[in-house]
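WARN no homologs supplied; continuing
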Amino acid sequence: MKRWMSVLTALALLVSALCVPALAADYVSASTPLGLSGARISNIRLAADAVNGTAVPYGGSFSFNGVVGARTSQRGYQSAENGRGVSVVGGGVAQVASTLYLALEQIDGISYDALKTYGDSYNQSYVSDPADAILVDESVGTDFAFTNYHGDMTIQMYISGDQLVCALNFDSVSGGTARSEATIYLSGTDALRNNVSLAAQAVNGTTLSSGDTFSFNDIVGERSQSRGYQSALNGRGVKVVGGGVAQVASAIWLAVKDLSDVVIVEKSTYGSRYNQNYVDSSADAILTDYGAGTDFSFRYMGTGSITIETYVSGDALVCRVSGASSGWDTGASGWESADSWDNGWNTGWNNASEVPTFE
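OK structure emitted
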């Protein structure tokens, strides 16, 4: 009997050992210690909250500056020591980038697009090796950015006790197989690409359960200089702050428009004023304007949930909808006539003459 117990114990240990790599592929984490400065911890918390929940699908790119945005006093950041001991507004935010880097270094398939460290000027203690002390500065364009070729990833970033924790979860973004996908090819200035990337990052990873409504304006928020948006051409060729953001809305529209369990609540297009080439038809050139309240929104009426992934990969803006298969018959329920909900919103806004600026 003792011999059999020994055999079973050995088998259990073997199984446990074999399971470790599989678990490591689904979840990795890293942590760094927090200091005593309340202002520095406040800055770290603001940046960590911005990063927390960010989804980076396979092939998608992550920009620290794009996600966190400007570190200014208007956005709640305070003066605190940075990685080389100099007091600056937003000091400490680089620790968030460094902790993320420590987690990423545990997996393969990560291609770094922008990576700079403090090097010899680093004199803090949140990482032991200066090569891990990532330097970021949104005001001068020093970014920490990567492209993910490991697998669909969700970044969790939070403070636990006296530690800043970064956890990377895999296979939790899509929630199911791809149901539809649309791609828009980008051209134009760096400012336009910046705007598109910011909006795509805001939408990326959005999950809708049955009955939930997607609102582009609610999710992306105000397109203003204080939030990192720049002047670029919109869909009718006018240069405005946030120009290009409507391309993200257009990509989402192309991905969802043929899904039977998606009901369009509000949709406006540029109509005859559309003069760009990111979509072939002006009927697909979605118009949005946060300030004027012109939104693109729809309701998910299927079973389970769907996840919307939007990301820039090279010159391509990709929208991928994945998750539960349709369990809702639009024909039987009569939802195919949902455009009538607009009460003329679409046709009234198509000419876009009433609103001075659009993305």
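The first strand starts at residue 27 and ends at 33.
OK
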